């Protein structure tokens, strides 16, 4: 079969056929129709774009609204939640404490302090130290306050991007740290020993302790390590320390002067009282604890300082408070039996005592410190509160109608005797000499019922025309009238006029010394004394004198 190739002529530009759109009706579209279609399409696309833009704005505004609502909720809820807690971002050293309460922060601080360890190393030796070993005194309360107040202001407090790192609130003692590290890294024989002054308990004196040159750790390294640890507690760090050659830079002559000054203060009289009748004279060995010979390890300067804290601790100690405290004691006042009127008889069963309560140290520590600084004695007192004693009336013992009842004394002026009873039971009878009979009766012993209200083992008894020092075993029962012994220097141990019952006193009941002592012991305050009978007026003996009677009348 023969291949037949059919070819079509390529039209030139002039012959190019333009194909026009055909409508649905099969008729060709005109240019105007085509433009109208294009316009509609463009409008459709624009409307679609506008709808799309409106939807995007709605979504954007919705997202912003949600974020704003979340921020507002975070602000109000966060402000409420963190009002008494550590704020977001707050750290103790490197440990986050966000949201912790005051009690929780206290536990955290204490735990971080406990966990803090610094190991100093040198020449193969290690000195492991806690914060207290290094002389760091942590104030937990202040540290907790610093954590709670690390951020201020509602907005700043809730700012999660602000992350403060709080250090421990603490005081440091570089000398303590240096000494601890030195003790751990340098053998005692090799250490620098600065000439010092210390109290010797055996000699009870301050003494100079000679120093010597030797090795010591680099102090700047130790100080820097302590500072770093306080700022970042809770970790175990290791610090390499270089050992250096050190010298004793303290002047021995200055040290001796400080020792002498300290010893001079040991002899001061420093009294501490309670403004009443209790007083403590602070002993020398206690004063020694108030005196601190102090050496500046940088300059070698040595001086005597007064330790205010040690003084305050002593004044506030339990032993001192106990010594200066006085318990209130109710005063019990004897009265006659109520059946006899219940009048007070002037005798106390129990002496009253005001209560004294120590309420604080007052100005005592400051005054003691000033006295030590000025090398002067001082009398000072703690702060106290007084509680006046109460008074209670108590009937004297008056069970006299039964055998072996309460003690009482019967003075029989007619017989010139004094008989001691217990209830109805007679115990002992003694010879006496009562008040002398006179025409005006001024020296007669009064009759009646009385009660012992005052007693002396010995006193000077005096009155118109007489004075008797050393009168023994005196028991007053009625004004100036008493049962008492006759002074030995006047009539000897056994006055004859007492033995014979010849009245001769100014109203008292005179007795032999031994008898008066017996009666003194038998008749306590409040003992009833019944005086009755009639004083003999003849001046004649009522009975014979005993074989031991004396007629000594004194020089």
Provide the fold topology.
Layout: H1 31-81, E1 91-92, E2 95-96, H2 102-115, E3 117-122, E4 125-129, E5 137-138, H3 140-148, H4 154-157, E6 165-166, E7 170-171, H5 174-185, E8 196-200, E9 205-209, E10 214-217, H6 219-231, E11 236-240, E12 243-246, H7 252-266, E13 270-273, E14 279-281, H8 284-290, E15 291-295, E16 302-306, H9 308-315, H10 318-324, E17 331-335, E18 344-350, E19 355-360, H11 364-374, E20 378-381, E21 383-387, E22 391-395, E23 403-412, E24 417-423, E25 425-431, E26 448-451, E27 454-463, E28 466-478, E29 481-485, H12 488-491, H13 496-500, E30 509-511, H14 513-522, E31 528-532
Parallel strand pairs: 1-6, 3-11, 13-20, 17-22, 23-31, 29-30
Antiparallel strand pairs: 1-2, 3-4, 5-7, 8-9, 10-12, 13-14, 15-16, 17-18, 19-21, 23-24, 24-25, 26-31, 27-28, 28-29
Strand portion: 25-35%
Mean pLDDT: 88
The proportion of residues forming helix, as a percent range, comes to: 25-40%
Number of distinct helices: 14
Q: How would a crystallographer describe the biggest sheet?
A: 5 strands, mixed
Overall body shape? elongated
| Low-confidence region ranges | 1-19
Lateral arrangement of strands in the main beta sheet: 25-24-23-31-26
Annotation, overall tally of beta strands: 31
Q: Could you say which structural class the secondary elements and strand pairing correspond to? A: alpha+beta
User: What value does the Rg take, in angstroms?
Assistant: 53 Å
């Amino acid at each position: 079969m023969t291949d037949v190739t059919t070819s079509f002529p390529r039209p030139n530009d002039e012959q190019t056929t333009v194909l026009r759109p055909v409508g649905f009706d099969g008729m060709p579209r005109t240019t105007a129709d085509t433009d109208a279609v294009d316009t509609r399409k463009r409008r459709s696309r624009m409307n679609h774009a506008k709808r799309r833009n409106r939807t995007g704005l709605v979504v954007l505004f919705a997202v912003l609204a949600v974020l704003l609502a979340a921020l507002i909720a975070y602000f109000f809820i966060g402000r409420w939640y963190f009002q008494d807690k550590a704020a977001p971002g707050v750290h103790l050293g490197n440990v986050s404490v966000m949201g912790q309460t005051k009690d929780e922060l206290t536990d955290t601080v204490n735990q971080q302090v406990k966990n803090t360890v610094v190991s100093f190393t040198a020449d193969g030796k290690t000195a492991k130290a806690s914060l207290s070993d290094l002389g760091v005194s942590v104030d937990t309360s202040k540290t907790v306050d610093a954590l709670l107040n690390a951020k201020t202001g509602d907005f700043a407090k809730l700012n999660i991007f602000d992350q403060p790192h709080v250090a421990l609130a603490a005081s440091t003692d570089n000398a303590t740290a240096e000494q601890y590290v030195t003790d751990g890294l340098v053998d005692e024989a090799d250490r620098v020993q600065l000439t010092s002054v210390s109290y010797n308990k055996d000699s009870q004196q301050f003494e100079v302790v000679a120093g010597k040159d030797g090795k010591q750790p680099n102090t700047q390294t130790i100080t820097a390590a302590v500072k770093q640890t306080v700022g970042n507690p809770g970790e175990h760090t290791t610090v390499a320390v270089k050992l250096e050659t050190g010298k004793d830079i303290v002047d021995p002559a200055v040290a001796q002067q400080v020792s002498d000054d300290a010893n001079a203060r040991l002899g001061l009289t420093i009294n501490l009282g309670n403004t009443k009748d209790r007083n403590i004279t602070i002993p020398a060995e206690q004063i020694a604890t108030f005196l601190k010979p102090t050496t500046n390890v940088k300059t070698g300067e040595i001086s005597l300082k007064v330790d205010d804290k040690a003084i305050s601790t002593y004044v506030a100690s339990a032993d001192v408070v106990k010594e200066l405290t006085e318990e209130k004691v109710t005063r019990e006042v004897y009265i006659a039996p109520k059946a006899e009127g219940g009048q007070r008889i002037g005798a106390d069963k129990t002496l009253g005592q005001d209560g004294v309560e120590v309420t604080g140290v007052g100005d005592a520590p400051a005054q003691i410190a000033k006295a030590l600084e000025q090398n002067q004695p001082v009398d000072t007192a703690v702060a106290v509160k007084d509680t006046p004693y109460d008074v209670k009336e108590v009937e004297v013992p008056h069970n006299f109608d039964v055998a072996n009842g309460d003690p009482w004394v019967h003075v029989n002026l007619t017989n010139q005797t004094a008989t001691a009873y217990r209830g109805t039971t007679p115990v002992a009878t003694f010879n006496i000499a009562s008040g002398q009979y006179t025409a005006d009766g001024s020296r007669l012993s009064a009759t009646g019922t009385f009660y012992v209200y005052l007693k002396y083992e010995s006193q000077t008894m005096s009155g118109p025309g007489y004075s008797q020092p050393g009168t023994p075993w005196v028991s007053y029962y009625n004004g100036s009238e008493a049962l008492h012994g006759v002074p030995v220097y006047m009539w000897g141990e056994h006055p004859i006029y007492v033995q014979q019952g010849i009245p001769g006193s100014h109203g008292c009941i005179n007795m032999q010394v031994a008898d008066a002592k017996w009666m003194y012991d038998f008749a306590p305050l409040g003992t009833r004394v019944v005086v009755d009978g009639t004083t003999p007026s003849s001046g004649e003996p009522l009975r014979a004198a005993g074989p031991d009677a004396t007629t000594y009348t004194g020089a």
